[in-house]
Amino acid sequence: MGLERIRERLSKESLEKLERIRNPYLHEFIAKYVDLCDPDEIFVSDGSEKDLQYIRERAIESGEERPLAIKGHTVHFDGYYDQARDRKNTKFLLPKGVSLGSSLNAIDREEGLEEIHKLLDGIMRGHELFICFYCLGPTNSIFSIPCVQLTDSSYVAHSENILYRQGYEEFIRRGKTREFFKFVHSEGELDERKTSKNIDKRRIYIDLVDEIVYSVNTQYGGNSIGLKKLAMRLAINKASREGWLTEHMLIMGVHGPKGRVTYFTGAFPSMCGKTSTAMLEGESIVGDDIAYIREINGEARAVNVEKGVFGIIKGINKEDDPIQWKVLHSENEIIFSNVLVDDNGKVYWSGMGEDIPDRGYNHSGEWWKGKRDKEGNEIPCSHPNARFTVELKAFDNLDPNLDNPNGVKIGAIVYGGRDSDTWVPVQEAFDWVHGIITKGASLESERTAAVLGKEGVREFNPMSNLDFLSVPIGKYIQMNLEFGKKLKHPPKIFAVNYFLRDKETKEYLNEKIDKKVWFKWMELRVHNEFGALRTPTGYIPLYEDLRDLFSSVLKKRYEKEDYIKQFTIRVPENLSKVRRIRKIYEKLEDIPSVLFRVLREEEERLLKAKRRYGDYISPDDLVE
Ligand code: SPV
Ligand code: MN
Question: What's the pLDDT score for residue 455?
Answer without folding.
Answer: 61
